[in-house]
Structure formats: C-alpha cells, structure tokens
Amino acid sequence: MIIRVLLLALLGLIGWRFFVRRNRLPVHIITVAVVLGLAALAVVFPESTNDIAHAVGVGRGADLITYLVEVGLLFVTVHYYTKFVELDAHVTKLVRELAIVRSELDELRKGKPTP
Amino acid sequence: MVTVRDETWIVIAAFNEGPAIRDVVAPLVAAGWRTVVVDDGSRDDTADAARVPGACVLRHAINRGQGAALQTGIDFALARGAERIVTFDADGQHRMEDLPALVGALDDADIALGSRFLGGVEGATRGRRAMLRVATAVSNRLAGLPLTDAHCGLRAFRASIAPKLRITQDRMAHASELLDKIAASGARWVEVPVTIRYTDHSRAKGQGAIQGVRILFDYWFRA
C-alpha cells in the first residue's frame, strides 16, 4: 500500500501548505478541506468511487475521477489565462503612466516649461 | 504662426535601436516636426542616443512591445495638444520626405496609411515582398478593408479619431487591430504612396513568417 501512503502524504502536504502559506478566508478553507477530504476518501476507499460512477452512468470510478480532473484542469487554465491577460494589460498601463510621469518629472527638474 | 508641423507629433517606438535611432530622430527634429521617441525597455543605449535636443524621449521601464510603446507615445502627444499623429519606424526604413504628403492627406481623411506597394520598396528580397502580400491579404480578409499594404508602420491620423483607434495589442498584432478599428469606426481612410528603404539593420529586425503565427495568436486570443 505504498501508493496510498504516498498519496495521503501528498494531500496532507497540500493542505498544510495551504493553511500555512495562503490566506485564511473561511470559504477557501472549507472548499480546500472538502476537496482534499474527498480525495483522501477516494484514496482510502477506492471501490467507493465505483459506486458513485455507476450512479452517474460512468463505468469505472477511475474514469469518473479522470473526467473530473480534466474539467478542473480546463477551468483552472482558462481562469488563469484570463487573469494573465488582464494582468498584462495592467502592467502595460502602469509602465505607460510611469514613462509619461517620469518624462514630465525630468522636464520639471530641468526647469523647462511643458509646451 | 502655428504651422502644420507644430501641431503634428511623430511617434517613434524604439527597441534596441541604439545604432540607428539618432539618424532617424535628428533630421525629423531639424525639419521642425514634433517628435516623441518611446524607448521600449531597450537593453542598449537607445534612450540616450535618441535624446536629440528638441525631441521628447520616454522610457518604458520594461519591454511591453511595439503596440504598447506606440500607444504610450500617442497618449503623450495627445496630452501635448497634438492635432495629428504620425507613427514612424525607428529603424530608418521610412523616409521623412513622405511626411508632407501623408500629413496633407489628412485634410480630406481621418487616417492616412502609407503603402509601399503604391510607392516603392528598396532593398527588399522577393521572399519579403511575397510575405508582405500574404500578410496584407490575410489582414484584408480579417478587417474587411481593400488595402494595398496592410502593415506599413508609416501612418498618420487626426487626434479626433485617436480614441477610436486605441491600441490594446501590446505586441505586433497592433497593426491588424488598428485595421479592425478603422473598419469598425467608419473613419475616412486613404492610402498614400510611400517609399520603404530596407537596410541590413531593418531586415534583421523585421518580422518573419514564424512571428506571423504569433501575431495571429495574439490577434485571436488576446482581444
């Protein structure tokens, strides 16, 4: 059962890092705890995933988990890509403002009136 | 008396143009054009080289791309009361002699686009010409405009139309973005023959086919 120990240890590590390093909004803590708890249950009782899979019309528990992971991954990718594009635009705006303000500052220092 | 050149700002986006930029800026300033150079976070001495007396030099703290640098220069020029804006390349491929006709075309249009295929191209390889034709065809299809040259960096437009032509594509897709905005805004546009002089320097800095793919990616996925 090396794999179970390994997976549970990794899940525990993720939970620990989350609590130590991240913000502590109750809703975040609950969400992460629930996801990690479900993952731990699936590790300890792998057969139980089969029952859930059958209930929703999927052949095997492992397949169901694969589908969920795929959807999750896609969501995370799209979410962060959107954020990234937004951030990119913000950085440009800041760099632009800084460039203009700095040139005005240089002119003021030189005592040259702005035309 | 206020002349056309007093109210017209030449906006130059420059990235690592240390060796070429002074020879581009100095004649423009000497001819009485208001000139602003935006050094887009160059690693060389572009900003210092561009500091010709009379020219304004802005510096992006980090490299943000040609589209971003042009918009910075445009914002700066508008804040200084520009009536007309000209975008001009930093690598020496554009000729100052084309400016009066380009700016003059704004008397009857909102935007004047330089066209090297109506004018002339010096020093371009066949491959480069062919690639530009392809790029023009692609851009025309995307924007729905019947242009002869879609990616000439030499353009002039009136300040009044500037808010409708705001560049949000930081990198090279800004040229295609601009065409979309021209089409969408219903601006009166005109093409003006210009002559492009390719040098070894400008060829080395030009966009190749691989970059073309990147530009299309930006165009579609970064709207």
Mean pLDDT of chain A: 90
Biggest pleated-sheet summary of chain B = 7 strands, mixed
Summing up helix and strand content along with how strands pair, one would put the structural category of chain B as alpha/beta
- Rg of Cα set of chain A: 25 Å
The first-to-last residue Cα distance of chain B is 43 Å
Number of helical regions of chain B: 8
Radius of gyration of chain B: 16 Å
pLDDT < 50 runs, ≥5 residues of chain A: none
User: Got a strand count of chain A?
Assistant: 0
Low-pLDDT stretches of chain B are none
> What portion of the residues of chain A fall into strands of 2 or more residues?
under 5%
Strand order of the largest sheet of chain B: 3-2-1-4-6-5-7
Described by its quaternary structure, the protein is heterodimer
The greatest inter-chain interface is formed by:
A-B, 14 and 21 residues
Brief summary:
Helices cover 87% and strands 0% of the residues of chain A. Chain A is built from four helices and no strands. Chain B starts with 7 loop residues before the first strand and ends with a helix.
Q: How would you describe this structure to a colleague?
A:
The complex is a heterodimer of chains A (115) and B (223). Chain A has 115 residues and is mainly alpha-helical. Chain A contains four helices and no strands. Chain A is 87% helix and 0% strand. In chain A, helix 1 (2-21) packs antiparallel against helix 2 (26-44) and helix 3 (46-56) packs across helix 4 (61-110). Chain B is of the alpha/beta class. Chain B has a seven-stranded mixed sheet with strand order 3-2-1-4-6-5-7, sandwiched between helices. In chain B, helix 5 packs parallel to helix 6 (174-185). Chain B is globular, with a radius of gyration of 16 Å. The N and C termini of chain B lie far apart (43 Å). Chain A binds chain B through residues 85, 88-89, 91-92, 95-96, 98-100, 102-103, 114-115, and chain B through 38, 41, 56-62, 64, 68, 71-72, 75-76, 79-81, 168, 170, 222.
